[in-house]
Please model this.
Amino acid sequence: MFNNVPKDLLMAKIILRLPAVKQRTGLGRSTIYSRIALGKFPRPIRLSERCVGWLEDDIEIWVDQRITEARVERDESL
Model:
């Protein structure tokens, strides 16, 4: 069944639904989807016909990038 799937994709992955993404990022639904449209937020993956989710790793990377950018901006203003 998983013969053609790369081994790194078989590692345990956590999929976050929208409420968890909102909670972790502090963003609202509209902001998340508008940033996706602008290419400034990770795209969700389709789980079913009417269901999407985000890989936890993608959200964690996005949050870490925001933290890094904020620190760089703060240091530049000092």
User: Anything to note?
Assistant: The chain is about 50% helix and 15% strand. The radius of gyration is 15 Å. Strands lie at 15-16, 45-48, 51-55.
